[in-house]
Design brief:
By secondary structure, the protein is of the alpha+beta class. It has a single domain (about 25-195), classed as Coagulation Factor XIII, Chain A, domain 1, CATH 2.70.50. Helices cover about 15% and strands about 30% of the residues. The protein contains 2 helices and 9 strands; from the N terminus they run H-E-H-E-E-E-E-E-E-E-E. Strands 2, 3, 5, 6, 8 and 9 form a 6-stranded mixed sheet that branches. The protein has a 3-stranded antiparallel sheet with strand order 1-4-7, with no helix packed on it. A hairpin with a 4-residue loop joins strand 8 and strand 9 (about 185-195). This is Lytic polysaccharide monooxygenase. Keywords: Monooxygenase, Oxidoreductase, Signal.
Length: about 200
Amino acid sequence: MRRKISAAAVGIGIAAASILATGGSATGHGYTESPISRQKLCANGTVQNCGQIQWEPQSVEGPKGFPNGGPADGAICSGGNGQFAQLDDPRGGKWPTTKLTSGADHTFNWRFTAAHATTDWRYYVTKDGYDPSQKVTRANLELTPFLTVPYNGKRPPFTFSHTGKLPSGKSGHHVIVAVWTIADTGNAFYACSDVQF
C-alpha cells in the first residue's frame, strides 16, 4: 500500500512540475526599470490600485510586430492583456514621470525573470502635443523608433542595460513605449514609461 501511495505522489509531483515548466506566457519575463515603467511603479507600490500587474510586472507579453501588428490601440501599455488593463488607464495624466533631457544619452535598464532569445529592443515616443490624459495609440505615437538595439538571437543577462540617444526637440509629458521582441516565439514584451522632457 505504501508503495502505491508513494508512486501516486511521485506521479502527481511530476505532472505538476510539467505543468509549471510549460506554463507559457503566464510566467512572464521582463520590464524596464529606467526609465521606470508603469508596471514597475505598480509593483513597487508607488502607484496603487493596479490589479494583478503589481505581482507580475514582468508579464506584459503580447503579439510581436509592432507597430504594424501587436496590441490594439488603447491596449499597447498592457500588451493587449485585459488582466493588465490598469496599465492602459492614463489616470488623468497623473502617472509619475521620470525627468529626462531631450536629445541626451540615456541608459535603458531592463530586468528579466526569463532570458529569451532576443531579436531587438525598440523604443517609441509620443508625438509633440500628446495629451497624457489619453490612452496610448498609434495615432499619438511616432511610429519610427527613436532607438533600435539589435541582439541577433542572443539571450540577455537577467539585468541588462544599453545606452542610446533620446529624441530631440521634446518637451513636457510624453510616454516612451519599449518593445522587447523575442526571436523564437510570436510575442514581444511591452513597457510604457511616463517621462517629462
